[in-house]
Amino acid sequence: MTTSKDEAVRQDLLDINVRIDQDELMGTEESFAELVKYIDAMRAERFDAWKDAAERGVPEGQVLIADRYCEDKNFTEAAEWYRKAAEQRYAEAQYALGNCYSRGEGVARDKAEAIEWFRKAAEQGYVKAQYELGVRSIKDTEAIEWLRKAAERGHAKAQSRLASKYELGDGVSRDKEEAIKWLHKSAEQGYLHSQYRLAKSCFEGNGIYKNKTKAVQWFRKAAERGDPSAQYWLAECYFYGDGIPEDKAEAVKWYLKAAEKRNGELPLFLNGDPRWRLAECYCFGEGVPEDRKEAMKWFREVAADAREETSAEEFLRKALLRKALSESV
Asked: Quick one: pLDDT at residue 272?
Protein backbone atom coordinates (compact mmCIF):
# COMPACT_ATOMS: atom_id res chain seq x y z
CA MET A 1 0.00 0.00 0.00
CA THR A 2 1.36 3.38 -1.03
CA THR A 3 1.64 5.86 1.82
CA SER A 4 1.83 9.65 1.75
CA LYS A 5 5.49 9.34 2.81
CA ASP A 6 6.20 7.14 -0.22
CA GLU A 7 4.47 9.63 -2.50
CA ALA A 8 6.64 12.40 -1.07
CA VAL A 9 9.76 10.37 -1.86
CA ARG A 10 8.52 9.79 -5.42
CA GLN A 11 7.97 13.52 -5.80
CA ASP A 12 11.48 14.21 -4.49
CA LEU A 13 13.00 12.02 -7.20
CA LEU A 14 10.77 13.59 -9.86
CA ASP A 15 11.80 17.10 -8.78
CA ILE A 16 15.49 16.20 -8.83
CA ASN A 17 15.18 14.64 -12.29
CA VAL A 18 13.50 17.76 -13.63
CA ARG A 19 16.42 19.84 -12.37
CA ILE A 20 18.95 17.39 -13.83
CA ASP A 21 17.25 17.57 -17.23
CA GLN A 22 17.32 21.37 -17.08
CA ASP A 23 21.03 21.33 -16.27
CA GLU A 24 21.76 19.00 -19.20
CA LEU A 25 20.09 21.46 -21.55
CA MET A 26 21.87 24.46 -20.06
CA GLY A 27 25.26 22.82 -20.07
CA THR A 28 26.94 25.57 -18.05
CA GLU A 29 29.12 25.54 -14.95
CA GLU A 30 26.67 27.90 -13.28
CA SER A 31 23.65 25.66 -13.85
CA PHE A 32 25.58 22.62 -12.58
CA ALA A 33 26.59 24.49 -9.42
CA GLU A 34 22.94 25.41 -8.82
CA LEU A 35 21.93 21.76 -9.36
CA VAL A 36 24.48 20.51 -6.82
CA LYS A 37 23.33 23.13 -4.32
CA TYR A 38 19.69 22.11 -4.82
CA ILE A 39 20.34 18.38 -4.39
CA ASP A 40 22.57 18.91 -1.35
CA ALA A 41 19.87 20.99 0.35
CA MET A 42 17.15 18.43 -0.42
CA ARG A 43 19.37 15.57 0.72
CA ALA A 44 20.15 17.27 4.03
CA GLU A 45 16.44 17.65 4.70
CA ARG A 46 15.05 14.41 3.27
CA PHE A 47 17.75 11.73 3.48
CA ASP A 48 16.24 9.86 6.44
CA ALA A 49 12.90 9.62 4.62
CA TRP A 50 14.64 8.29 1.49
CA LYS A 51 16.56 5.69 3.48
CA ASP A 52 13.42 4.52 5.26
CA ALA A 53 11.58 4.18 1.93
CA ALA A 54 14.52 2.35 0.35
CA GLU A 55 14.70 -0.19 3.17
CA ARG A 56 10.97 -0.81 2.77
CA GLY A 57 11.47 -1.58 -0.92
CA VAL A 58 10.25 1.69 -2.48
CA PRO A 59 12.23 1.87 -5.76
CA GLU A 60 12.38 5.67 -5.84
CA GLY A 61 13.97 5.65 -2.39
CA GLN A 62 16.41 2.96 -3.51
CA VAL A 63 17.46 5.09 -6.50
CA LEU A 64 17.93 8.17 -4.33
CA ILE A 65 20.08 6.21 -1.89
CA ALA A 66 22.07 4.69 -4.76
CA ASP A 67 22.66 8.14 -6.22
CA ARG A 68 24.10 9.25 -2.87
CA TYR A 69 26.48 6.29 -2.80
CA CYS A 70 27.56 7.16 -6.35
CA GLU A 71 28.45 10.68 -5.31
CA ASP A 72 30.43 9.25 -2.39
CA LYS A 73 32.28 6.97 -4.89
CA ASN A 74 30.92 3.88 -3.13
CA PHE A 75 29.93 2.26 -6.41
CA THR A 76 29.56 -1.27 -5.04
CA GLU A 77 26.84 -0.17 -2.63
CA ALA A 78 25.28 2.03 -5.30
CA ALA A 79 25.04 -0.86 -7.77
CA GLU A 80 23.37 -3.05 -5.15
CA TRP A 81 20.67 -0.46 -4.50
CA TYR A 82 20.14 0.18 -8.21
CA ARG A 83 19.76 -3.58 -8.70
CA LYS A 84 17.12 -3.83 -5.98
CA ALA A 85 15.01 -1.23 -7.80
CA ALA A 86 15.86 -2.56 -11.28
CA GLU A 87 14.63 -6.02 -10.35
CA GLN A 88 11.29 -4.41 -9.54
CA ARG A 89 11.23 -3.28 -13.20
CA TYR A 90 11.81 0.32 -12.22
CA ALA A 91 13.05 1.83 -15.48
CA GLU A 92 15.27 4.58 -14.09
CA ALA A 93 17.13 2.03 -11.96
CA GLN A 94 17.50 -0.31 -14.95
CA TYR A 95 19.08 2.56 -16.87
CA ALA A 96 21.36 3.43 -13.95
CA LEU A 97 22.42 -0.20 -13.55
CA GLY A 98 23.19 -0.25 -17.27
CA ASN A 99 25.51 2.68 -16.70
CA CYS A 100 27.20 0.80 -13.85
CA TYR A 101 27.97 -2.11 -16.18
CA SER A 102 29.02 0.24 -18.96
CA ARG A 103 31.53 2.04 -16.74
CA GLY A 104 32.55 -0.88 -14.55
CA GLU A 105 31.42 0.96 -11.45
CA GLY A 106 30.51 -1.38 -8.59
CA VAL A 107 30.34 -4.34 -10.98
CA ALA A 108 32.64 -5.91 -13.54
CA ARG A 109 32.54 -3.95 -16.78
CA ASP A 110 30.25 -5.75 -19.20
CA LYS A 111 29.00 -3.89 -22.27
CA ALA A 112 26.58 -6.67 -23.24
CA GLU A 113 25.00 -6.62 -19.78
CA ALA A 114 24.83 -2.83 -19.96
CA ILE A 115 22.92 -3.02 -23.24
CA GLU A 116 20.48 -5.53 -21.76
CA TRP A 117 19.61 -3.22 -18.88
CA PHE A 118 19.36 -0.23 -21.20
CA ARG A 119 17.01 -2.25 -23.38
CA LYS A 120 14.80 -3.23 -20.45
CA ALA A 121 14.42 0.44 -19.55
CA ALA A 122 14.00 1.58 -23.16
CA GLU A 123 11.25 -0.94 -23.83
CA GLN A 124 9.34 0.57 -20.91
CA GLY A 125 9.63 3.95 -22.62
CA TYR A 126 12.44 5.42 -20.52
CA VAL A 127 13.69 8.07 -22.92
CA LYS A 128 17.29 8.31 -21.67
CA ALA A 129 17.72 4.59 -22.23
CA GLN A 130 16.23 4.92 -25.71
CA TYR A 131 18.81 7.58 -26.49
CA GLU A 132 21.59 5.42 -25.05
CA LEU A 133 20.61 2.50 -27.28
CA GLY A 134 20.47 4.87 -30.24
CA VAL A 135 24.05 5.92 -29.55
CA ARG A 136 25.38 2.43 -28.78
CA SER A 137 23.58 0.21 -31.28
CA ILE A 138 25.86 -1.39 -33.86
CA LYS A 139 23.15 -1.79 -36.48
CA ASP A 140 22.24 1.47 -38.22
CA THR A 141 18.56 0.60 -38.47
CA GLU A 142 18.30 -0.10 -34.75
CA ALA A 143 20.26 3.04 -33.85
CA ILE A 144 17.96 5.22 -35.95
CA GLU A 145 14.87 3.50 -34.55
CA TRP A 146 15.84 4.21 -30.93
CA LEU A 147 17.06 7.73 -31.64
CA ARG A 148 13.79 8.50 -33.40
CA LYS A 149 11.75 7.13 -30.47
CA ALA A 150 13.64 9.35 -28.06
CA ALA A 151 13.59 12.36 -30.40
CA GLU A 152 9.85 12.10 -30.95
CA ARG A 153 9.37 12.15 -27.20
CA GLY A 154 11.29 15.40 -26.97
CA HIS A 155 14.77 14.25 -25.93
CA ALA A 156 16.93 17.18 -27.06
CA LYS A 157 20.18 15.24 -27.37
CA ALA A 158 18.45 12.55 -29.41
CA GLN A 159 17.03 15.22 -31.68
CA SER A 160 20.50 16.69 -32.12
CA ARG A 161 22.05 13.27 -32.81
CA LEU A 162 19.29 12.40 -35.27
CA ALA A 163 19.92 15.72 -37.02
CA SER A 164 23.58 14.72 -37.41
CA LYS A 165 22.56 11.37 -38.86
CA TYR A 166 20.47 13.07 -41.53
CA GLU A 167 23.11 15.70 -42.20
CA LEU A 168 25.83 13.10 -42.79
CA GLY A 169 23.68 10.37 -44.30
CA ASP A 170 24.75 8.04 -41.49
CA GLY A 171 22.31 5.12 -41.36
CA VAL A 172 19.67 7.10 -43.28
CA SER A 173 19.45 8.82 -46.62
CA ARG A 174 21.13 12.21 -46.48
CA ASP A 175 18.46 14.87 -46.00
CA LYS A 176 19.55 18.35 -44.91
CA GLU A 177 15.99 19.62 -44.53
CA GLU A 178 15.20 16.77 -42.14
CA ALA A 179 18.46 17.48 -40.32
CA ILE A 180 17.50 21.12 -39.83
CA LYS A 181 14.01 20.12 -38.66
CA TRP A 182 15.41 18.02 -35.81
CA LEU A 183 18.19 20.48 -35.04
CA HIS A 184 15.62 23.25 -34.72
CA LYS A 185 13.48 21.15 -32.36
CA SER A 186 16.52 20.51 -30.18
CA ALA A 187 17.61 24.16 -30.21
CA GLU A 188 14.11 25.36 -29.34
CA GLN A 189 14.27 23.23 -26.20
CA GLY A 190 17.39 25.08 -25.17
CA TYR A 191 20.05 22.46 -25.96
CA LEU A 192 23.15 24.65 -26.12
CA HIS A 193 25.10 22.60 -28.69
CA SER A 194 22.12 22.61 -31.07
CA GLN A 195 21.64 26.34 -30.73
CA TYR A 196 25.22 26.91 -31.89
CA ARG A 197 24.93 24.39 -34.73
CA LEU A 198 21.68 25.93 -35.92
CA ALA A 199 23.26 29.38 -35.86
CA LYS A 200 26.13 28.15 -38.06
CA SER A 201 23.65 26.50 -40.45
CA CYS A 202 21.71 29.76 -40.78
CA PHE A 203 24.92 31.74 -41.21
CA GLU A 204 26.31 29.45 -43.93
CA GLY A 205 23.04 28.41 -45.57
CA ASN A 206 23.68 24.76 -44.78
CA GLY A 207 20.40 22.90 -45.31
CA ILE A 208 18.45 26.09 -44.80
CA TYR A 209 18.16 29.46 -46.52
CA LYS A 210 21.09 31.66 -45.53
CA ASN A 211 19.79 34.12 -42.98
CA LYS A 212 22.48 35.95 -41.05
CA THR A 213 19.97 37.91 -38.99
CA LYS A 214 18.49 34.63 -37.75
CA ALA A 215 22.00 33.28 -37.25
CA VAL A 216 22.83 36.20 -34.96
CA GLN A 217 19.73 35.46 -32.89
CA TRP A 218 20.84 31.87 -32.32
CA PHE A 219 24.49 32.83 -31.77
CA ARG A 220 23.29 35.27 -29.10
CA LYS A 221 21.16 32.65 -27.34
CA ALA A 222 24.15 30.30 -27.08
CA ALA A 223 26.66 33.07 -26.38
CA GLU A 224 24.66 34.48 -23.49
CA ARG A 225 24.67 31.02 -21.94
CA GLY A 226 28.45 30.86 -22.13
CA ASP A 227 29.25 28.89 -25.29
CA PRO A 228 32.71 30.20 -26.36
CA SER A 229 32.34 29.32 -30.05
CA ALA A 230 29.02 31.17 -30.20
CA GLN A 231 30.60 34.11 -28.39
CA TYR A 232 33.37 34.19 -30.98
CA TRP A 233 30.95 34.11 -33.91
CA LEU A 234 28.68 36.72 -32.38
CA ALA A 235 31.75 38.92 -32.05
CA GLU A 236 32.58 38.32 -35.73
CA CYS A 237 29.04 39.32 -36.71
CA TYR A 238 29.35 42.57 -34.76
CA PHE A 239 32.83 43.27 -36.13
CA TYR A 240 31.87 42.87 -39.80
CA GLY A 241 28.22 43.90 -39.55
CA ASP A 242 26.98 40.46 -40.63
CA GLY A 243 23.28 40.12 -39.77
CA ILE A 244 23.50 43.02 -37.35
CA PRO A 245 24.74 46.63 -37.50
CA GLU A 246 28.51 46.88 -37.18
CA ASP A 247 29.63 47.58 -33.62
CA LYS A 248 33.31 46.90 -33.04
CA ALA A 249 33.18 47.81 -29.35
CA GLU A 250 30.49 45.14 -28.87
CA ALA A 251 32.63 42.77 -30.90
CA VAL A 252 35.56 43.28 -28.53
CA LYS A 253 33.28 42.54 -25.57
CA TRP A 254 32.33 39.17 -27.03
CA TYR A 255 35.87 38.32 -28.21
CA LEU A 256 36.97 38.89 -24.63
CA LYS A 257 34.25 36.62 -23.22
CA ALA A 258 35.22 33.88 -25.69
CA ALA A 259 38.93 34.26 -24.94
CA GLU A 260 38.38 34.08 -21.19
CA LYS A 261 36.13 31.03 -21.56
CA ARG A 262 38.92 28.94 -23.05
CA ASN A 263 40.36 28.41 -19.54
CA GLY A 264 43.83 27.70 -20.92
CA GLU A 265 42.73 24.74 -23.02
CA LEU A 266 45.17 24.05 -25.84
CA PRO A 267 42.86 23.46 -28.85
CA LEU A 268 42.10 26.64 -30.77
CA PHE A 269 38.67 27.30 -32.21
CA LEU A 270 38.27 25.63 -35.57
CA ASN A 271 37.20 28.84 -37.26
CA GLY A 272 39.44 31.35 -35.54
CA ASP A 273 40.93 32.42 -32.25
CA PRO A 274 39.33 35.26 -30.22
CA ARG A 275 42.71 36.09 -28.70
CA TRP A 276 44.15 36.79 -32.15
CA ARG A 277 41.15 38.99 -32.93
CA LEU A 278 41.59 40.85 -29.64
CA ALA A 279 45.25 41.38 -30.41
CA GLU A 280 44.34 42.87 -33.79
CA CYS A 281 41.67 45.10 -32.26
CA TYR A 282 44.14 46.53 -29.75
CA CYS A 283 46.88 46.74 -32.37
CA PHE A 284 44.78 48.86 -34.76
CA GLY A 285 42.42 50.57 -32.33
CA GLU A 286 39.28 48.83 -33.57
CA GLY A 287 36.55 48.91 -30.95
CA VAL A 288 39.10 49.88 -28.29
CA PRO A 289 41.82 52.53 -28.00
CA GLU A 290 45.01 51.49 -29.80
CA ASP A 291 47.29 49.76 -27.30
CA ARG A 292 50.28 47.81 -28.65
CA LYS A 293 51.21 46.58 -25.16
CA GLU A 294 47.78 44.96 -24.75
CA ALA A 295 47.98 43.64 -28.30
CA MET A 296 51.30 41.94 -27.54
CA LYS A 297 49.80 40.35 -24.43
CA TRP A 298 47.19 38.59 -26.56
CA PHE A 299 49.69 37.74 -29.32
CA ARG A 300 51.85 36.05 -26.66
CA GLU A 301 48.91 33.92 -25.55
CA VAL A 302 48.36 32.81 -29.15
CA ALA A 303 52.07 32.12 -29.59
CA ALA A 304 52.15 30.00 -26.42
CA ASP A 305 49.54 27.65 -27.91
CA ALA A 306 50.78 27.68 -31.51
CA ARG A 307 51.84 24.30 -32.90
CA GLU A 308 54.74 25.95 -34.73
CA GLU A 309 57.35 27.95 -32.90
CA THR A 310 56.19 31.45 -33.73
CA SER A 311 56.95 34.44 -31.53
CA ALA A 312 54.47 37.10 -30.54
CA GLU A 313 56.58 39.56 -32.52
CA GLU A 314 56.15 37.43 -35.64
CA PHE A 315 52.40 37.36 -35.09
CA LEU A 316 52.46 41.15 -34.81
CA ARG A 317 54.34 41.41 -38.11
CA LYS A 318 51.79 39.11 -39.78
CA ALA A 319 48.92 41.22 -38.46
CA LEU A 320 50.54 44.43 -39.71
CA LEU A 321 51.16 42.89 -43.12
CA ARG A 322 47.58 41.62 -43.36
CA LYS A 323 46.28 45.07 -42.44
CA ALA A 324 48.47 46.74 -45.04
CA LEU A 325 47.34 44.33 -47.75
CA SER A 326 43.65 44.81 -46.91
CA GLU A 327 44.01 48.60 -47.08
CA SER A 328 45.79 48.43 -50.45
CA VAL A 329 42.92 46.55 -52.12
From this structure: 75
| pLDDT tens column, 157-176 | 999 999 999 999 999 999 99
Task: Mention every residue, 6+ apart, whose C-beta is less than 8 A from residue 116.
Answer: 98
- Residue ranges and CATH numbers for the domains of the chain are 227-329 (1.25.40.10)
What's the whole-model pTM score? 0.84
Considering the chain, what percentage of its residues have pLDDT values greater than 90?
Answer: 76
Tell which residue, 306, 249, 234, has the closest CA to residue 276. Answer: 306
Q: Please count the other Cβ atoms lying within 10 Å of the Cβ belonging to residue 109.
A: 12
How far apart CA 219 and CA 271 sit, in angstroms, is 14
Q: What is the C-alpha separation between 90 and 87, in angstroms, rounded?
A: 7
For 264-295, the DSSP string reads: T-SPPPTT--HHHHHHHHHHHTSSS---HHHH
**Cα 279 from chain centroid (whole Å):** 29
> Binning pLDDT at 50, 70 and 90, where does residue 24 land?
confident
Helix ranges, the chain (H): 4-26, 29-55, 59-71, 75-86, 91-103, 111-123, 127-136, 140-152, 156-168, 176-188, 192-204, 212-224, 228-240, 248-261, 274-284, 292-305, 312-328
Mean pLDDT of 64-90: 96
Q: What does the alpha-carbon distance between residue 159 and residue 147 come to, in Å, rounded to a whole number?
A: 7
Angle at 114 between CA 109 and CA 118, to 5 degrees: 160
For the stretch 117-141, pLDDT in tens is 999 999 999 999 999 999 998 788 9
